[in-house]
Write a structure and sequence with these properties.
Order of helices and strands: HEEHHEEHEHHEEHEEH
Shape: globular
CATH architecture: 3-Layer(aba) Sandwich
Radius of gyration: 17 Å
Largest sheet: 5 strands, mixed
CATH superfamily: Uracil-DNA glycosylase-like domain
Strand order of the largest sheet: 3-2-5-7-6
CATH class: Alpha Beta
CATH topology: Uracil-DNA Glycosylase, subunit E
Oligomer: single chain
Number of domains: 1
Strand content: 15-25%
Structural class: alpha/beta
Protein backbone atom coordinates (compact mmCIF):
# COMPACT_ATOMS: atom_id res chain seq x y z
CA UNK A 1 0.00 0.00 0.00
CA UNK A 2 1.23 3.48 -0.84
CA UNK A 3 2.26 5.68 2.08
CA UNK A 4 -0.32 8.31 1.13
CA UNK A 5 -3.07 5.68 1.11
CA UNK A 6 -2.07 4.60 4.62
CA UNK A 7 -2.44 8.22 5.70
CA UNK A 8 -5.84 8.62 4.04
CA UNK A 9 -7.01 5.40 5.68
CA UNK A 10 -5.90 6.72 9.06
CA UNK A 11 -7.79 9.96 8.39
CA UNK A 12 -11.00 7.91 8.27
CA UNK A 13 -10.74 7.62 12.06
CA UNK A 14 -11.98 11.22 12.11
CA UNK A 15 -15.71 10.51 11.94
CA UNK A 16 -18.28 13.25 11.37
CA UNK A 17 -18.82 13.72 15.09
CA UNK A 18 -15.10 14.39 15.55
CA UNK A 19 -15.23 17.75 13.80
CA UNK A 20 -16.18 20.70 16.02
CA UNK A 21 -18.56 23.50 15.13
CA UNK A 22 -17.31 25.48 12.15
CA UNK A 23 -15.31 22.58 10.69
CA UNK A 24 -16.55 19.93 8.28
CA UNK A 25 -14.85 16.80 6.89
CA UNK A 26 -13.54 16.67 3.35
CA UNK A 27 -15.92 14.99 0.95
CA UNK A 28 -13.65 14.32 -2.03
CA UNK A 29 -9.98 14.21 -3.07
CA UNK A 30 -8.23 16.65 -5.41
CA UNK A 31 -6.55 14.68 -8.17
CA UNK A 32 -3.66 17.04 -8.89
CA UNK A 33 -1.29 19.21 -6.86
CA UNK A 34 -2.67 20.01 -3.42
CA UNK A 35 -1.80 20.20 0.23
CA UNK A 36 -3.10 17.24 2.23
CA UNK A 37 -5.89 16.60 3.21
CA UNK A 38 -7.36 18.24 0.11
CA UNK A 39 -5.35 15.89 -2.06
CA UNK A 40 -2.27 13.69 -1.83
CA UNK A 41 0.03 16.48 -0.65
CA UNK A 42 2.28 16.04 -3.68
CA UNK A 43 3.63 18.29 -6.43
CA UNK A 44 2.07 16.62 -9.46
CA UNK A 45 2.47 19.37 -12.05
CA UNK A 46 4.16 17.97 -15.18
CA UNK A 47 5.50 14.87 -13.42
CA UNK A 48 4.30 11.37 -12.64
CA UNK A 49 4.93 11.30 -8.88
CA UNK A 50 2.55 8.87 -7.21
CA UNK A 51 3.59 8.70 -3.56
CA UNK A 52 5.31 10.46 -0.69
CA UNK A 53 9.09 10.35 -0.73
CA UNK A 54 10.15 8.56 2.44
CA UNK A 55 12.93 10.48 4.16
CA UNK A 56 12.09 13.58 2.16
CA UNK A 57 10.81 16.99 3.23
CA UNK A 58 7.57 17.59 5.14
CA UNK A 59 6.00 21.03 4.70
CA UNK A 60 3.38 21.82 7.35
CA UNK A 61 0.75 24.52 7.05
CA UNK A 62 -1.86 25.33 9.70
CA UNK A 63 -5.11 24.23 8.06
CA UNK A 64 -6.56 23.58 4.63
CA UNK A 65 -9.22 25.56 2.75
CA UNK A 66 -12.87 26.39 3.27
CA UNK A 67 -15.70 24.51 1.56
CA UNK A 68 -16.08 26.85 -1.43
CA UNK A 69 -12.33 26.98 -2.05
CA UNK A 70 -12.13 23.20 -1.93
CA UNK A 71 -14.94 22.90 -4.49
CA UNK A 72 -13.08 25.26 -6.83
CA UNK A 73 -9.91 23.16 -6.56
CA UNK A 74 -11.89 19.99 -7.22
CA UNK A 75 -13.37 21.53 -10.37
CA UNK A 76 -9.92 22.71 -11.47
CA UNK A 77 -8.37 19.33 -10.69
CA UNK A 78 -5.64 21.01 -8.64
CA UNK A 79 -5.11 23.85 -6.24
CA UNK A 80 -4.39 27.04 -8.14
CA UNK A 81 -0.63 27.16 -8.69
CA UNK A 82 -0.93 30.91 -9.18
CA UNK A 83 -2.32 31.49 -5.67
CA UNK A 84 0.09 33.24 -3.26
CA UNK A 85 0.82 30.07 -1.28
CA UNK A 86 2.00 27.99 -4.23
CA UNK A 87 3.49 30.90 -6.19
CA UNK A 88 5.70 32.07 -3.33
CA UNK A 89 6.65 28.55 -2.23
CA UNK A 90 7.77 27.70 -5.75
CA UNK A 91 9.92 30.82 -6.00
CA UNK A 92 11.55 30.29 -2.61
CA UNK A 93 12.12 26.56 -3.05
CA UNK A 94 13.58 27.04 -6.52
CA UNK A 95 16.08 29.54 -5.16
CA UNK A 96 16.94 27.14 -2.32
CA UNK A 97 17.34 24.26 -4.82
CA UNK A 98 14.54 22.26 -3.21
CA UNK A 99 12.97 19.66 -5.47
CA UNK A 100 9.21 20.03 -5.06
CA UNK A 101 8.73 16.33 -5.75
CA UNK A 102 10.75 15.53 -2.61
CA UNK A 103 8.15 17.32 -0.48
CA UNK A 104 4.99 16.17 1.24
CA UNK A 105 2.71 19.18 1.80
CA UNK A 106 0.33 18.76 4.72
CA UNK A 107 -1.46 20.68 7.47
CA UNK A 108 -1.58 20.53 11.25
CA UNK A 109 -5.39 20.65 11.38
CA UNK A 110 -7.74 18.48 9.38
CA UNK A 111 -11.10 19.46 7.91
CA UNK A 112 -12.51 22.45 6.04
CA UNK A 113 -13.63 25.79 7.40
CA UNK A 114 -17.40 25.97 7.05
CA UNK A 115 -17.39 29.70 6.43
CA UNK A 116 -17.27 32.22 3.59
CA UNK A 117 -13.60 32.99 4.24
CA UNK A 118 -10.62 30.65 4.45
CA UNK A 119 -8.58 33.03 6.58
CA UNK A 120 -8.79 33.99 10.23
CA UNK A 121 -8.92 31.80 13.32
CA UNK A 122 -9.46 28.14 12.46
CA UNK A 123 -12.53 27.02 14.48
CA UNK A 124 -11.03 23.61 15.23
CA UNK A 125 -8.20 25.20 17.20
CA UNK A 126 -10.70 26.03 19.95
CA UNK A 127 -11.45 22.36 20.67
CA UNK A 128 -8.85 20.67 22.89
CA UNK A 129 -10.01 17.17 21.94
CA UNK A 130 -9.94 17.91 18.20
CA UNK A 131 -6.55 19.57 18.56
CA UNK A 132 -5.17 16.47 20.27
CA UNK A 133 -6.55 14.15 17.59
CA UNK A 134 -5.02 16.33 14.86
CA UNK A 135 -1.64 16.35 16.60
CA UNK A 136 -1.76 12.58 17.05
CA UNK A 137 -2.53 12.32 13.35
CA UNK A 138 0.35 14.65 12.48
CA UNK A 139 2.65 12.42 14.50
CA UNK A 140 1.36 9.45 12.50
CA UNK A 141 2.18 11.26 9.26
CA UNK A 142 5.70 11.92 10.54
CA UNK A 143 6.08 8.24 11.41
CA UNK A 144 5.09 7.29 7.86
CA UNK A 145 7.22 9.78 5.93
CA UNK A 146 10.17 9.87 8.36
CA UNK A 147 11.19 13.29 7.02
CA UNK A 148 14.81 14.37 7.25
CA UNK A 149 13.60 17.96 7.07
CA UNK A 150 10.42 19.65 8.33
CA UNK A 151 9.44 23.13 7.17
CA UNK A 152 6.68 24.90 9.09
CA UNK A 153 4.62 27.66 7.48
CA UNK A 154 3.25 30.52 9.56
CA UNK A 155 3.56 31.48 13.21
CA UNK A 156 0.87 29.13 14.53
CA UNK A 157 2.51 25.86 13.49
CA UNK A 158 5.75 25.87 15.57
CA UNK A 159 3.99 25.72 18.99
CA UNK A 160 1.73 22.94 17.67
CA UNK A 161 4.61 20.85 16.34
CA UNK A 162 6.42 21.44 19.63
CA UNK A 163 3.83 19.23 21.35
CA UNK A 164 5.32 16.23 19.52
CA UNK A 165 9.01 16.53 20.44
CA UNK A 166 10.82 17.29 23.67
CA UNK A 167 13.53 18.88 21.54
CA UNK A 168 11.08 21.62 20.55
CA UNK A 169 10.26 22.80 24.07
CA UNK A 170 11.56 26.27 23.20
CA UNK A 171 8.83 26.58 20.58
CA UNK A 172 5.89 25.83 22.87
CA UNK A 173 5.31 29.43 23.94
CA UNK A 174 6.29 31.10 20.67
CA UNK A 175 3.70 33.68 19.60
CA UNK A 176 5.54 35.50 16.82
CA UNK A 177 8.45 35.25 14.44
CA UNK A 178 10.12 37.95 16.49
CA UNK A 179 10.13 35.50 19.43
CA UNK A 180 11.89 32.92 17.25
CA UNK A 181 14.36 35.35 15.74
CA UNK A 182 15.28 37.14 18.96
CA UNK A 183 15.92 33.83 20.73
CA UNK A 184 17.76 32.50 17.64
CA UNK A 185 15.64 29.34 17.57
CA UNK A 186 14.39 29.59 13.99
CA UNK A 187 16.13 26.27 13.32
CA UNK A 188 16.08 23.16 15.48
CA UNK A 189 18.39 20.37 14.39
CA UNK A 190 18.07 16.68 15.25
CA UNK A 191 14.61 16.88 16.81
CA UNK A 192 13.29 13.47 17.88
CA UNK A 193 9.75 12.31 17.09
CA UNK A 194 7.75 9.10 17.39
CA UNK A 195 9.58 7.68 20.41
CA UNK A 196 12.95 8.61 18.88
CA UNK A 197 12.25 6.64 15.70
CA UNK A 198 12.37 9.78 13.54
CA UNK A 199 14.99 12.53 13.68
CA UNK A 200 14.45 15.71 11.67
CA UNK A 201 15.95 19.14 11.10
CA UNK A 202 13.26 21.82 11.36
CA UNK A 203 12.92 25.42 10.23
CA UNK A 204 10.09 27.91 10.82
CA UNK A 205 9.19 30.08 7.82
CA UNK A 206 6.60 32.78 7.25
CA UNK A 207 3.44 31.57 5.55
CA UNK A 208 3.82 32.10 1.79
CA UNK A 209 0.26 33.42 1.51
CA UNK A 210 1.22 36.39 3.71
CA UNK A 211 4.89 36.53 2.82
CA UNK A 212 4.71 40.12 1.55
CA UNK A 213 3.44 41.26 4.96
CA UNK A 214 5.92 39.43 7.19
CA UNK A 215 9.11 38.59 5.35
CA UNK A 216 10.86 41.91 6.00
CA UNK A 217 10.64 41.27 9.75
CA UNK A 218 12.66 38.03 9.62
CA UNK A 219 16.22 37.92 10.93
CA UNK A 220 18.86 35.21 10.89
CA UNK A 221 22.46 35.78 11.91
CA UNK A 222 23.42 38.99 10.08
CA UNK A 223 20.72 38.66 7.42
CA UNK A 224 17.24 40.13 7.07
CA UNK A 225 14.05 39.40 5.17
CA UNK A 226 14.13 37.03 2.21
CA UNK A 227 17.88 36.50 2.54
CA UNK A 228 17.38 35.39 6.15
CA UNK A 229 14.81 32.72 5.30
CA UNK A 230 16.82 31.53 2.32
CA UNK A 231 19.85 31.10 4.58
CA UNK A 232 17.74 29.18 7.10
CA UNK A 233 16.66 26.74 4.40
CA UNK A 234 20.18 26.24 3.16
CA UNK A 235 21.39 25.71 6.72
CA UNK A 236 19.12 22.73 7.32
CA UNK A 237 19.37 21.24 3.84
CA UNK A 238 23.07 21.28 3.11
Amino acid sequence: MRAIDKIFNKLKEFDNETYPEGVVPLFDRIEGTSFFPGGDGLWKYENDITDIRIGGIMVIGHNFDNVSGFKKSLALGSESLACPTWKNLRILFQEANIDLTSCYFTNAYMGLMNSQSNIGVFPGSKSSSFKKQCLDFLEYQISIQQPQTIITLGRFVPPLLAQLSIDLDQWKKVKSFNDLDQAEIQIIKHAHFCENQVISNIVALTHPANRHLNIQKRKYKNLNGHDAELAMLREILF
